[in-house]
Design a protein that fits this description.
Blueprint lengths: L4 H11 L5 E6 L2 E6 L2 E7 L2 E5 L5 H5 L4 E3 L10 E4 L7 H16 L5
């Protein structure tokens, strides 16, 4: 599956040159990891965001979101944000920051 390279580039710009952030191809798209833990990624035209189990319900109440479900089993703690909901850089930035904030709290891999 191809992924939206434009969206990936916007994420790169938001993350800047942080040496703790790496990229890896995953889920047929690209993932951005903080110290080895996935924070956000791009799958098709959508943004994958790791929000954590405690924040899933609140994240799903926001516009353009849905459950992250690639295998028929929803993954609690992960959501997808429709690419159409990310046209504003501020909105994308909030999601990227939220994913990074969760990954920062995890021990490095």
């Amino acid at each position: 599956m191809a992924y939206d390279e434009g969206l990936a580039e916007r994420i790169r710009q938001r993350l800047g040159s942080d040496p703790d952030v790496t990229e890896r191809r995953m889920f047929g798209g690209i993932a951005f990891l903080y110290r080895g833990n996935m924070a956000v990624g791009v799958s098709g035209d959508d943004l994958m965001v790791r929000v954590g189990p405690d924040h899933t319900d609140a994240a799903l109440a926001r516009p353009g979101t849905r459950v992250f479900d690639m295998t028929g089993r929803p993954m609690r703690g992960w959501i997808l944000v429709a690419g159409t909901a990310l046209s504003e850089d501020d909105v994308l930035g909030e999601w990227v920051d939220e994913g990074r904030a969760f990954a920062v709290r995890l021990p490095p891999k």
